[in-house]
Fold this sequence. Notes:
By secondary structure, the chain is α/β, with parallel strands linked by helices. The protein has helices spanning 2-5, 29-32, 49-61, 72-82, 97-105, 129-139, 158-167, 204-207, 226-236, 243-277, 316-327, 349-365, 386-390, 429-440, and strands spanning 8-10, 65-69, 89-92, 110-113, 143-147, 154-155, 171-175, 199-203, 215-219, 285-286, 299-300, 304-308, 329-331, 333-334, 338-342, 394-398, 411-414, 419-421, 444-447, 450-451, 455-459. α4 packs across α5, α4 (72-82) crosses α9 and α10 (243-277) crosses α12.
Amino acid sequence: MLSALRRVPMHMPGHKRDLAEFPWLSVPCGAWDVTEIAGFDDLYAPNGVLGDLLGRVAALWGSRRAFLSVNGSTGALFAALSLFKDRGVLAARNCHRSVFAAAQQLGIRTEYLMPDVAEGQGIFGSVSAAETAKRLDETGCGAVVITSPTYEGVLSDIASVACEAHARGAVLIVDCAHGAHLGLSDAFPDGGVREGADIVVSSLHKTLPALTQTAVLHVCSERVCADDAAAAIAAFCTSSPSYVLMASVEGTVGYLEEKAAEKERELVGMLSSFRAKTAGLKHLKVFDGERDKCASIFKTDISKIYIDCKNCDLSGYELKRRLLDEAGIELESASLRGAIAYATVADKAEDLDLLARALERIDIECGEGEKREMSVPVPGEKTMEMRAAAGMPWRKVSFADAVGCVAAEGMWVYPPGVPVLLPGERVTAEAAEFLAAAEREGAEVSSGRGAARGSVRVIA
């Protein structure tokens, strides 16, 4: 483990283990490990220091009311979806597995919304407001949930999507788990809180200097009862919240109140320099949503560095391994077609320079290759609700033998954890081959039962 800590961390958590810049993270955990004693408040009935902290969080991002989750964004998403479990949920199909796990466990009728595919990029683009309206008219769902930004940094037009949802009596939930840094200054776009979303869920630890497992549920509009949200958070998060985690949030909030604008402007400058240095790569390609415009991408979060391998003889997994072995750089994730690095306010210019030089060297050494599949294949048809499918008799078959069958379980590559299969979906040849190819590359292909090892449960 110690050797891993010496790597250059181009991945979450957002503090990048920089204890000099974020000294509150170096306080021994035992010193903060208390409970609801005098002076330390109660997270689920806050009227003291935690109440003050939650008020500061709401003011910082501009929400009506903020709730802290120490069960990460997963706990917050379970809470958010539980508020609308009787109304049906229209979920973008590229949402994180936690969204679908919540819908399955809560027995929510779930309909799917397919984002556009970004032309030539091999990733999902933005969720279309027009498609949202169309699917709401078809399904009559009372809530919409989308991911913005995506793992690759693609943002959707929240204002337009919200407008279409509200016109049809639906609320908009934005999974902004990877975008807690958005909306803090004019250096980055808003993450949805001020753009019309009704609920926004953000993981503080992913892109900001808070400890892993800290997240916020923002109630942004009067379409959501804040007291109901408070009760849901209390139900889906531990009744013994960690004061170690909450203290890290307090340190993070204080830091952001003082330095967010300055540090985010510095980060944008470093990222602009990095993209300029890597613009001339011949085989690898660093995606730049500003330079490489396409109709299916509304806007991008430039702190996500997506490196496309479609024109070289490396897969994203091979690129990730080479960067670690040859330059000591640990990326966030990889796919068959590309790899992703995360930059945060904790990064230094020399870290991004090191990544740029390593990519330049690998770009010279690699050759041209065949075009690879998109990061997540288009799923098959929905045949039944997830909860019903998961409760059916099943048999275990190989990926290849599952083609044409109905999945009895979800299946994903982690990270990022966007399901390739969902319970109740028909398994396509493309999905089966994607899972098999990812496993051949050494990726972690799994379901709720653990590692897939070449098999999937289908309805018997």
